[in-house]
Amino acid sequence: GTSNSEGAGKVSLLKKVPALKDGDFTLAECTAILLYLCRKYNTPDHWYPSDIQKRARVDEYLSWHHANIRANAPKTMWIKVLIPLFTGQPLPSEKLQEVMEGLSTSLKQFEERFLQDKAFIIGSEISLADLVAIVELMQPVGVGCDIFEDRPRLREWRRRVEDAVGKELFFQAHEMILNIKELSNIQIDPQLKEQLAPVLMKMLK
To answer: Which of 36, 102, 151, 157 could join 72 in a cystine, given CB atoms 3.0 to 4.6 angstroms apart?
Structure first.
C-alpha cells in the first residue's frame, strides 16, 4: 500500500511498500522484487526456472494473479478487521459475501487452470508462483474465512507448499496475517482514523 512517510519516499518513488533498497539501487512492487532477488542471488532453479517455457508459466500465473486472487483475497482482511478498526463501524455482511463470491470464482479458475492435477502451479516443484499465491490466500484464513476447508485439491496444494517451505518458516512468515484479528484491540489516533477511513472505503469500490 501507499505510505506517506519520508523514508518510504526515499526508497520508492511510488511511496509504496513493499520496497527494496540494495545499496544505491531501489525497487518497488513485490513481483519485481522477488524476480530481482532470484536473479541476484542465483537461487535454486525451481523458484524461477531457466527453462524458457517453465519460466513463462510462472510469468503467466503472476500476470493473472493480480487481477484475480489479489483482487479479492486481501479484501476479506480489510472488510472484517481493518476498515472497522479505522471507521469504528462494521461493514454490511453483503459486502463480504460479494468479495467471497468473486474469490470463489478466482479459486475455481486457479484449481482448474493452474493447479489441475499437478503438485504445484508449474509442475512437480514449488516456484515463485506458489509463494505469491499462498501469501494472498492465507489472508482470508487469518480473518476466519477458511477457503481451504471445502476444497480438497486446494488444501493438498497448501500442505505441499508448507512442506516445501518448511512448516516452521511457513507459519513464521504468516504469523502477522494469522493474528490480524488482534489489531481490533489497539487504539488508533483519531486524526489518523479521519484521514484513512475514506481511503480504505474507496479501496473496496
So the answer is: 102
